[in-house]
Amino acid sequence: MTAQEGQEAVETQALEAQFAQWRHYAQRRRELQSSDADELEDHLRGSVDELVMAGLSADEAFLVAVKRMGSLDELSREFAREHSERLWKQLVLTGGPDADTRSRRDLRVMVLCAAGAAASLKAPELFGTKMTDDGSASLYGPNLGLFVLPWLAGFLAWRRQARRPLIGIMGALFALGAVAANVYPVADNSQSLALTSIHLPIALWLVVGLAYAADDWRSSRRRMDFIRFTGEWFVYFVLIALGGGVLTVFTAGTFEAIGIVSDDFISQWLLPCGAAAGVIVAGWLVEAKQSVVENIAPVLTRLFTPLFTVVLLAFLVAVCWTSTGIDVERDALILFDLLLVVVLGLLLYSMSARDPLAPPDLFDKMQLALVVSALAIDVLVLLAITGRITEYGTTPNKAAALGENVILLANLAWSAWLLLRLVRRHTPFAALERWQTSYLPVYAVWAWIVVLAFPPLFGYA
Amino acid sequence: MKVAKDLVAASATPIVLGILAEEESYGYAILKRINELSGGELDWTEGLLYPLLHRLERLGHVESSWRSATGERRRKYYRITDRGLAELAEQRRQWDTVVDALKEIWTGLGDRAALPVIPVEGHA
């Protein structure tokens, strides 16, 4: 090889590197698809060839050609005018050619799991327990989570290729849940049954969390991912449910028009099976669209954090103004539990979308105001209620609601403290995140206590 | 002199269709041909050409295929369709009307609107 040839080889190599870099930039543009990048690259090469022929070095030719083409900003703007649909990120369920086999397999397993969930929900009918029977509430109430959530956990565990010990632990927990839901001799209309029906799904959802985080469930980041997953799953499930509602209305209406009453089919098959399958489909959707579509839960929290803050502050002002205490009715405790849950949700989901390295801003202060006002209100309620409990004695409902109140109060109180320090720049945001993620097991433990220990403790009342 | 942007945009479709009616071609060659035809006076950018080609394709006026001619890179070639030819004929009728009208006016005005006499020196 002569010296000149060697020189040329080096130049070509450098030129190719530059083309590669340019392509990389071009492909980051959503407006430009890969075939557009191909086309533009060919244009660029044509331009470079001509310039080289005119006597420029490869380096110079590339610079001139790129300059002539104009900035990618401008170019993509022009492309966007013709291809505006590209600015709407599309969830391509079958992905690119590489991801194709993987996502198809996902799809197949998901359909299998969804069918399984729907089938297990209907399985008790094989043994003669129909959903419409009077006694079926005592079966379906506490067992609902057990019919559906193992399939979701199974799908996630399969996707993450969870290790055997973890699968074993999850299986044991689901079995424990099945025992708790069915072994205790609780009456059909007892408070214990209602409490188990509420708390077992929460406990099992956190088992799903184990499957989600798979082998790395101790890591704070993975737990935060699970929190994100939960929020997105909820949003998708609600959307699917809305679509399902429309489907139901049309099923009922159109068949009624030809004299077929489909009520039984709807209440026995369409609704329960659709809901069970929806749980799995929503989980799969969140997995499939990860990073393709903007997360919606944090957007909702951004929208509602200021509104909730205003309402809570207004409520506090009104309490001070009228100087009337809160009238503690029977449902008040539950209502304020839910308020704390909502506030916690607002906090969690804005945290899940926050850049951990960003300095504290106005929004953090607003969150602090939200949490503090929720805490103030809750303290008022708690005082009123402990008074009532010491006066009238306790029931499973009151004990559970009080316990939840204390758990949420503790979480929010410490969050408020950390938020305050964050706003004052004493602690980094990571401390807040770590606090929330390490608090997750507390919910799990409490839910299991209510499910396992409450019925015997309160004499199966 | 550079042709105004609006005028470039308005004439873009008939020019591209016209070039493709001569023979099938690809982006870079089309741009070169336009330069040639206008003596470099028509200021076309890639941002104008490629989205326009894609639009014409969407409308069915041209069709494209990725091919590599012998000894050349793989390129996206555009070919005009029958619809495109019909569109070109229609555009041509419209442009003829405009050009005829303008010609009438220019001749009517005589020299008054001919190339402006720019005061060079000593008149200011």
Fraction of helical residues of chain B:
55-70%
Shape of chain B: globular
Number of strands of chain B: 3
CATH class division of chain B:
Mainly Alpha
**What distance lies between the first and last C-alpha atoms of chain A, to the nearest angstrom?**
93 Å
Number of domains of chain B: 1
List the domain count of chain A as a whole number: 3
Count of DSSP H/I helices of chain A = 16
Structural class call of chain B reads: alpha+beta
Overall residue-averaged pLDDT value of chain B: 85
User: Are there runs of chain A of 5+ residues with pLDDT below 50, and where?
Assistant: none
User: SSE order of chain A in H/E notation?
Assistant: HHHHHHHHHHHHHHHH
Number of helical stretches of at least 4 residues of chain B: 4
Main beta sheet strand tally, sense and closure of chain B: 3 strands, antiparallel
Cα radius of gyration of chain A in angstroms = 29 Å
Fourth-level CATH superfamily of chain B: Winged helix-like DNA-binding domain superfamily/Winged helix DNA-binding domain
How would you write the strand order of the largest sheet of chain B?
A: 1-3-2
Fraction of residues of chain A in helices?
Answer: over 70%
Quote the beta fraction of chain A.
Answer: under 5%
| Assembly context of the chains | heterodimer
- CATH architectural name of chain B: Orthogonal Bundle
